[in-house]
Amino acid sequence: MSRLWTCLSVAAFLLFAGVANAEERWQTLPEPAPMPKADESGFAPVNGIQMFYAVYGKGEPVLLIHGGLGHADIWSSQVAELAKTRKVIVADSRGHGRSTRTEEPFGYDLMASDYIALLDHLKIDKTALVGWSDGGIIGIDLAMNHPDRLTRVFAQAANVTTDGVDPGVLTNKTFAAYIERSGRDYKKLSKTPDQYDAFVGQISKMWETQPNWNTDQLAKITTPIAIVTGDHDEAIKREHTDAMAKTIPGATEVILPNASHFAMLQAPDEYNKAVLEFLDAR
Asked: Which is one GO molecular function term here (predicted)?
């Protein structure tokens, strides 16, 4: 992933130096809408870090987990819709956004345990989970290791082995724009605004080798799960997504049309509809 970071940084420079803007919806990176006002927010002490969280609405809980380098505010359109009928919990993963980090190596098991500790802090026994990219990977990790804490998992743009990542992402303009925006947001939100490069270097070490789950591990998942991708996902190979859906027992595969890795921003109404249909399925 260190090579990925370098290539995307170069692509970001070229993009903002005058490369033509994307025209198709799946090539865009819309800004998230402002977050609604939270009913509760704060910092939970979990695994040696201070983890930012916010809670919206009432009803059956659903936890939204953002992707790598991002933060909870990317879910604004989903929070606004889901909180009409549910208790929605968002958080910044360790080192991301407003949450702090330690020198402990990043790992999906560790990040999953952070979210278990957050649920304990909020006194939530079981929840549905919507995860994007790294958030989807964390959801799969939880489904394998903590199925008693989950009701359903909607895993979008996730991979289960490192070779599921499309090497074309190295020069993708939309991803370059996301990297640039993430750095800007980090400086605005983080308690350590001058440490973005150090944070990226730390999490990149995880991306070099994780996730790395085998088919036997995936075949043991019993939590109802949707494996979701945009039909133009720039980062995850389509054949990898298809294989995931075939391997996990009872998994539902959902393909979001005219959307990419950033489907929740590009097509929020369609995204929300897909999430609600899955959460409401019986």
From this structure: hydrolase activity
